């Protein structure tokens, strides 16, 4: 049986053939002569019906040679093939159009744009980049090309190029993407930091803050860099600032901040900060961080008491699993409890992930950019169990 979309493939040429016939009547009335075009049409149609799309494409390509007015048919077919995921066929059609010197320049530019989309869909980023870079020369397609290039450079993690394109988009089309561009600078800063280039990292970070003063990620990184340079007090200041910027993100730095306070001889401040944050912004990650510090800085009994209190306020399977684990460590568990813990452990593993709010992609680690849909800041810094309970 022919699937639904294949019927479109068949119907489209039929509609165009009808148009052809009408035009034919018109030209015959004007004394023109009929040509062999429709035969190529119906040959293509026949191939499509017999599910031989490649031979059909050949037949249709012959049609465009005979009648440039059928360009629209080719665009429609090319788009359909691309939508069906048959990128090779879409590329063939659009390349053919692009290479026809006798077609109007406008149609060739459009073919180039379609070809770029084909390559993008097929994951051929280099060739997509090449097509859209060429398309920048076409004023009618420039904004579309800039948008596509911005996407491509992000996929290729070419952050400097992405920044440049984002600037052009803002200048030429008024499309601003400040939050995104701040992330591009942060990516560059992280790379520099990984290469132990602290000065480079600081330069990129200044750029990030210039674009977005309230960037949480930049504040976290600023603290990391300060700590790396042995400036603990400055690091503490940057991380404390996150509580004012957006306390939702506190779990991402709470451990680092508490340890820096402790290293500065301010253990009581560290514990106060953790307890207060947990009270004001309850979160499973924050509970984990606080529990671990209390267990080693105060006592295992105090840590267990914290877990019990927190479970009364915000019951969660993840919290309960931590409590059972703590009991096992302190030797309070019997074999039945141990069994129960193992059982819960396998169940909660799925609940302990982060989840993208745009596409639902799940990840063990927190991401600033979703690996699934490439959106920025689409991961709430909370575990799935908390997200579903909200
Ligand atoms: Zn996503």
Outline of this structure?
The protein has 390 residues and is an all-alpha fold.
Description of the structure:
Helix 12 (216-228) packs antiparallel against helix 13, helix 13 packs antiparallel against helix 14 (250-263) and helix 14 runs antiparallel to helix 15. The chain has helices at 4-29, 37-49, 53-66, 71-83, 87-98, 105-121, 125-135, 142-155, 159-173, 178-194, 198-211, 216-228, 232-245, 250-263, 267-280, 284-297, 300-313, 317-329, 335-348, 384-389, and strands at 354-355, 362-363. 72% of the residues lie in helices and 1% in strands. The two termini are 46 Å apart. A two-stranded antiparallel sheet has the order 1-2. Residues 28-35 have low confidence and may be disordered. It is built from 20 helices and two strands. The chain binds zinc ion. Residues 356, 358-359, 361, 370, 372-373, 375, 378 line the site of zinc ion (ZN). Zinc ion binds next to loops.
Task: Please tag this protein with its features.
binds zinc ion; elongated; 390 residues; 1% strand; 20 helices; mainly alpha
Structural class: mainly alpha
Please write the string of helix (H) and strand (E) elements: HHHHHHHHHHHHHHHHHHHEEH
What is the terminal separation in angstroms? 46 Å
Our Rg estimate from Cα atoms comes to: 30 Å
Physical arrangement of strands within the biggest beta sheet: 1-2
Unreliable stretches covering 5 or more consecutive residues: 28-35
Q: Main beta sheet, described?
A: 2 strands, antiparallel
Report the bound ligands by name, code or SMILES: zinc ion
Mean pLDDT: 87
How many H/I helical runs?
20
Shape: elongated
Helix % is over 70%
């Amino acid at each position: 049986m022919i699937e639904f979309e294949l019927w479109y493939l068949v119907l489209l040429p039929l509609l165009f053939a009808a148009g052809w016939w009408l035009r034919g009547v018109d030209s015959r009335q004007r004394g023109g002569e009929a040509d062999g075009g429709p035969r190529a049409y119906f040959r293509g149609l026949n191939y499509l019906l017999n599910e031989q799309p490649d031979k059909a494409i050949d037949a249709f390509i012959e049609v465009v040679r005979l009648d440039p007015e059928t360009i629209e048919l080719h665009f429609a077919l090319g788009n359909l093939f691309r939508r069906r995921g048959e990128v090779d066929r879409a590329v063939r059609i659009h390349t053919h159009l692009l290479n026809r010197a006798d077609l109007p320049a406008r149609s060739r530019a459009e073919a180039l744009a379609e070809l770029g989309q084909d390559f993008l869909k097929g994951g051929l980023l280099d060739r997509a980049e090449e097509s859209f870079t060429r398309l920048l020369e076409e004023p009618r397609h420039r904004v579309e090309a800039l948008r596509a290039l911005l996407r491509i450079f992000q996929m290729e993690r070419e952050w400097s190029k992405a920044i440049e394109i984002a600037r052009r988009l803002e200048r030429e089309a008024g499309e601003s993407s400040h939050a995104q561009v701040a992330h591009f600078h942060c990516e560059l800063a992280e790379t520099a930091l990984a290469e132990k280039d602290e000065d480079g990292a600081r330069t990129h970070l200044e750029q990030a803050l210039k674009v977005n003063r309230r960037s949480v990620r930049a504040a976290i990184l600023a603290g990391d860099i300060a700590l790396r340079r042995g400036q603990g007090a400055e690091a503490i200041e940057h991380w404390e600032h996150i509580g004012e910027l957006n306390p939702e993100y506190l779990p991402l730095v709470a451990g680092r901040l508490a340890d820096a306070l402790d290293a500065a001889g301010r253990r009581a401040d560290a514990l106060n900060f953790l307890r207060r944050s947990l009270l004001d912004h309850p979160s499973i990650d924050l509970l984990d961080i606080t529990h671990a510090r209390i267990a080693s800085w105060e006592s295992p009994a105090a840590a267990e008491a914290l877990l019990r209190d927190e479970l009364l306020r915000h019951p969660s399977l993840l919290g309960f699993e931590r409590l059972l684990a703590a009991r096992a460590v302190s030797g309070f568990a019997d074999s039945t409890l141990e069994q129960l813990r193992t059982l819960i452990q396998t169940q909660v593993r799925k609940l302990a992930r982060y989840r993208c709010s745009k596409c639902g992609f799940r990840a063990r680690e927190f991401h600033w950019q979703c690996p699934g849909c490439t959106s920025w800041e689409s991961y709430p810094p909370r575990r799935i169990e908390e997200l579903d309970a909200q």
